[in-house]
Amino acid sequence: MHHGSCLCGGVKYEISGELSGALNCHCSMCRKAHGAAFRSRASVNASDFKWVQGEELVTYFDSSPGNHRGFCRVCGSPLLSRFDQNPSVFGLPLGALDDDPKLKPMLHAFVGSKAPWHDITDNLPQFQELPK
Ligand SMILES: [Zn+2]
Ligand SMILES: [Zn+2]
User: Which Pfam family, any one, appears in the UniProt record (predicted)?
Assistant: First the structure.
């Protein structure tokens, strides 16, 4: 079981299964959504995910058609992404987790959009877009 919450503590969730597909996304949308050099995220099965508290605070922004980025409307923490083309899987920003997900990002995606002020200093594989 994994637990996560937003910065203000108003929203809490739990995940009963394992995460997968962890990566760092350097696309410009993720950078802006997180106010950071990149977004570290994983995938979670929708059936494993449950809001425990504050679901009514979660607001969705459609960063592109069919891509709904959920965040806490009080504190702004990114919490969950839903995808119209794949509703059985959610995208989960690792930063909101409260415990060790027992996996680490395995690659860098969209490095073609990488912030000029950030240098990647690890040896993980880098991809110009999302690897197939
Ligand atoms: Zn919050
Ligand atoms: Zn991205």
Answer: GFA
Q: What is the pLDDT of residue 1?
A: 93
- 112 Cα–ligand 2 center, Å: 11
Q: How many angstroms separate the alpha carbon of residue 56 from the centre of ligand 2? A: 25
Which pLDDT tens digit goes with each residue over 25-42? 999 999 999 999 999 999
Total domains present in the chain: 1
Nearest ligand, CA of residue 29?
A: 2
Distance CA 47, CA 23 (A): 21
Domain encompassing residue 67: 2-113
User: For residue 18, what pLDDT band results from cuts at 50, 70 and 90?
Assistant: very high
- Quote the ligand 2 centre to 29 CA distance (angstroms): 6
Residue 71 located in a structural domain: yes
